[in-house]
Structures are given as C-alpha cells and as structure tokens.
Amino acid sequence: MNGPLYDFFEKDHRRIEELLKKATADRHHIDEQGYHAFRTGLLRHIKMEEKILFPAAQKANGNVPLPLQAKLRLDHGALTALMVVPPSPDIITVLWHVLEKHDELEEQPGGMYDVCENLTRNETARLLDQLRRTPEVPVQPYNPAAYALDSARRALQRAGFDFETILHGKTENG
Ligand SMILES: [Fe+2]
Ligand SMILES: [Fe+2]
Q1: Which of 6, 8, 34, 65 falls 20 to 30 Å from 113 in CA-CA distance?
Q2: Which 3 state secondary structure label does DSSP give 18?
C-alpha cells in the first residue's frame, strides 16, 4: 500500500496532467487560462519536491543525495525551461513525453516517492502540512525569443532528452 506522501504527489501528478490535457485539447488553440493553471500547478509541484520532499529525504539519509535525485533535478530544470516558451504543438508533445518519463521515475515501485516516504516516516504529518501550505509560484509571461527555446533544448539535453528525437522518433539504429 502506498503511503500518504506518495498519494499526495501521485494525486498532484494526475491533477496536473488533467490541466494540461484540458488546456491543450486543441493544440493549435491553447486555452490560455487553462494553460496558466497547468504552468503554475507544475511549478508549484516541482517546488514542493525540490524544497520540501527531497531535502527532507536527503537529510534523513545522512545528508547523502538519493540515487535518482540528480536525474530528477535535471528533469525539473528541463520542465521549468519548457514553461518559459510559448506552448506550440511541438512543445506540448515534448512536455507530455518528459512528464510521462519523469513521473514514472517518481511513482514506480521503489522509485523516488517510495524512497522518500520510507526515509521520512517519522515526520509525515509535518511534511504534509508544509506541502499543503506551499504557495503558488509566480510565473512570467512567455518568452518567444529563439534563445529561450535554445535554452529549453539544452536543458532537455542535460536531462537526457533530445527535442528532435522526441518529435520525430528515433532516426538512427531503430
Ligand atoms: Fe518531479
Ligand atoms: Fe512529481
């Protein structure tokens, strides 16, 4: 059975996916208000992990970072960079891909959430309280400049994702 922290974050993943799905039902006419709710929801979620959950787990782990932590942080950097650029159909495709891979690493049995839950067993209530009180993250207007997209591509690259490969499938070696 999953613990309360796992449930909290898993539920938030589903909520955020639902927001993205609704806002981008027509990828050529994004629902701006809906997409704003998705952006702020995702950025708050990342903040809860980076500022509350992961540090608490690391502390309980004798201050040694957890094995998945570095990769998840790079994913968070890529997702954050994708929140800066206007949501084109290509960006939406890439977002879904990264979100699915990322959430799996957190949710899978023995994944990040299970590890964090186990390490912080004696402070679950306090952490949940802190998580629920996390304020929204203010967002800037989109940046349509080419360098913003370049920097999202580089952030994806660092996290092991290739923008073009995600869009067009694997072109080499199947
Ligand atoms: Fe995450
Ligand atoms: Fe997450």
Answers
A1: 34
A2: helix
